[in-house]
Design goal:
This protein is of the alpha+beta class. Helix content is 26%, strand content 28%. The strands form seven sheets. Strands 1, 2, 5, 11 and 13 form a five-stranded antiparallel sheet that branches. Strands 6, 7, 8, 9 and 10 form a five-stranded parallel sheet that branches. A hairpin with a 2-residue loop joins strand 1 and strand 2. The longest helix has 30 residues. The chain is globular, with a radius of gyration of 28 Å.
Length: 697
Amino acid sequence: MLRIVRPGLTVAAAVAAAAVLSAQNPPQGQPTFRGGTNVVRVDLFAMRDGTVVDDLKASEVELLEDGVKQTIENFEYVRVRPPVAQELRAEPNSVAESRQMAADPRARIFVIFLDTYHTQALNSPRMRQPLLQFIDRVVGQDDLLALMTPEMSATEVTLGRRTTVVSRLLNDNNFWGRRGRSGADNDPDEDAYEACYFEEPQIAVEMKARRREKLALDALDDLIVHLGGLRDERKAILAVTEGWLEYGPNPALTRPLKSDQGRVPGPPSPVQRGTTGEPINGGENPRGKCESDRIALAQMDHRDHLRTLAERANRVNVSFYPVGAQGLAVFDTAIDEKPIDPLPQDSRRLGNPQSELQLDQSNLRTRLNGLRLLAEMTDGVAIVNTNNITPLLKKVVDDMSSYYLMTYSSTNTKLDGKFRSIAVKVSRPGLQTRSRRGYRALTAGELAVPAAAASAAASAPPSPSAAGVVAALTSMAFNPRAELRLRTSAWTLPAAGQGAFWLVGTLDDATRRTPEWSAGGTAEIAIRGSDGQVVLSKPVPVTPADGGFSLQVPESGALPPGEYTIRVRARGGAGASLEETARVSVPAQAPGLGEPVVWRRRPSTGAPYFRTADPRVSRTDRLRLELAAAVAGEPAATLLDRTGKPLAVPLQVAARDEGGVRWITVETAIAPLAPGDYAVEVKLGDATRTTAFRVVP
């Protein structure tokens, strides 16, 4: 069975945290909203002939829950403050402060969802200017904005008031759309599909399309859950996409392969390699996984998925504002592409096979109708089938620029987890109104979880690792003006008494973007032992995507223990040249935990992780450490602040065996962290290794 797992946010815990913060820190000079298990907030939008109504009275409004009249305790007219300069916007400096800002019902929340899988590369640049104008001219000073792609987990979403980070990501990644790109844009699973079914490539094409639709819709599902946990009031998702085909089951996708007919079982296939030359699935033969994925993807049924997704969004007060990235389109697929029938079983059952042109037109209608459905079911607006996007985006935000905020204590105090409908009636004639349609009540179990977690956090002892953090921060010290940084990570093979190391080089981000280095370059590496003998001398490419290189030394076999000197001369375009040196020690006896290999991922690009020598990361990144282990036991990892105190940010810890070495992997999102210095403490038995990093704006 194909499972795509993404970490999520406990809804009840986030709702309770938001309610507590809102109750404890009400804005000065504004009404205090009560908190409690049965307190409900409702936003009401009122207009007359397209003009906002700003003089509605509480006495003109009747509010019903499941048909039972409720008492309105607070009634406030909210007008969103206009945009201001970036430096005047108050950015959250901690996770708690970010949650408090999100819990403020007067602040609008916008998440721009760039559906990289379902936007063609040539259509993504045309979305850049409308989105930048939306960000710079429309998002108010109290609003919170974030960016997400299907490659991200919802827990990586970073809400902030300063929009420069999102603007920079859009400017730096003009061609972010991946639909219709060549195999060079594959991820490892997609490389595996092409390697497994190279004799029948159409199978791999359909598997990739089905898997990408599943990833995109799963990401939206996670985002809805995450936003629903932040607060009760309305949240907006601007889904920039060309839409989805809503695949149904296709038994024909599981047909026996022509290449298997008459085949005699033999030895396993050689290791398959992807478009980057890296082994697929860790060097294992991927055929078994390909076949299990083929069966699962063939059974995938998304025909009702959008409706279910919209219902879930409506229950937690999330509105969709889909933006059709294809504009005023005539065809769904490029002229050199063959359209896929998303419902082949239905077509055969109806006995009405479609021509390629009919199928293309049907697919285009399916995509646009799905976007309209999302908007209609969640009180949003669909901006589709048009090239005039900018003014329509402004109209969307104007639609949310003022509203009435009401609070009531529900007369239904049962903790049953059931959905409760909300209806708002206005006595003044001639008004058009929209309001929250309902909510799901908490259960007794959900109410107990946050209290227990808070109690445990309050009683947690301070970390004894402050000295380790100080040492890690000291070793992290670097020259901020350095244009090329080197990092080495050595380990020892327990059985051989010899070792190896990773050499990683990274250009500074500013240097990487210059014309001399924007196309990459070459790094000439020379490594000598303590006796002066040359151990390795070779050129390696500096890749433009991450502005760096990495090399395992030696590339096969092992090195005797000792000191090694490294000299790197990197050459770019127009005669640009950078030089750096480093030293590394391969220990004679393997330490319990070796020096970490540091990996980084920029989620907005959808690119895989890459090794890095730069200890600085952005709040939109993910960080991964890999440490060679020489002792047995279960690894554990903790995120620490610069004083050594543990932070309540989850870390994913795993272990694997590779090449005779046990590797411990620690992974985390940077999104919950404010700018500053932090450290990851990894423990295995009696061994401890602390690695520092810096979060930059």
